[in-house]
Design brief:
The chain is an all-alpha fold. The chain has 2 domains: about 35 residues; about 130 residues, no CATH class. It contains 8 helices and no strands. Helix 2 packs across helix 4, helix 2 packs across helix 8 and helix 5 packs antiparallel against helix 8. The radius of gyration is 26 Å and the shape is elongated.
Length: about 170
């Protein structure tokens, strides 16, 4: 009788060990899968981060206007926060965020520096494409050189807020 109990104990112990090993493998697999995001997932997440960065630019424009910096630089009003005017900068911020998402994994160790420098890409597009298309000239110089300074200043939060939002949403690893 004692031998049967010992055999049952050994069998239960072996089954328990096997279950624990299998659970350990499953947990490692789940952990590894959780850390591996696809490029599409990172791009989608960074779209949201770019929208947050664009929202920071809109809010910063209102702060600058409230402090009187905008009027000193020749800007007569802050960006409109009313519908439908607000959607265009938020959408473009999301598109630029998607571009940021393409290389967020490679830039992860220096994400905030890269985010701070990332603002140069949308600024170059603004200065060399969008402003001339709207009639403001390259770098917005038809509006005066202070307008160019204002555009540089107001867009500074975009890259860093995009990086902060991406880090907050993506977690410890992309």
């Amino acid at each position: 009788m004692n031998t049967t109990n010992k055999l049952d104990e050994i069998k239960v112990q072996n089954d328990t060990d096997k279950q624990m090993r299998e659970a350990g493998v499953e947990q490692r697999d789940l952990k590894a899968m959780g850390n591996l995001m696809t490029v599409g997932q990172r791009v989608a997440i960074c779209f949201a981060a770019g929208v947050a960065g664009a929202a920071a630019v809109l809010i910063f424009s209102h702060i600058l206007f409230g402090l009187g910096v905008s009027t000193t630089l020749g800007v007569k009003s802050a960006f409109s926060l009313k519908s439908p005017d607000i959607y265009k900068p938020l959408f473009w911020g999301g598109l630029w965020g998607m571009l940021f998402g393409l290389f967020v994994k490679t830039a992860w160790n220096r994400l905030y520096l890269i985010g701070f420098l990332f603002v140069l890409a949308p600024l170059l597009a603004l200065f060399l494409f969008f402003l001339p298309m709207s009639g403001a000239g390259y770098f917005g110089l038809h509006q005066g050189p202070m307008f160019t300074v204002y555009l540089l200043l107001v867009n500074l939060p975009f890259g860093i807020v995009t990086a902060l939002a991406a880090r907050a949403i993506l977690g410890p690893e992309p």
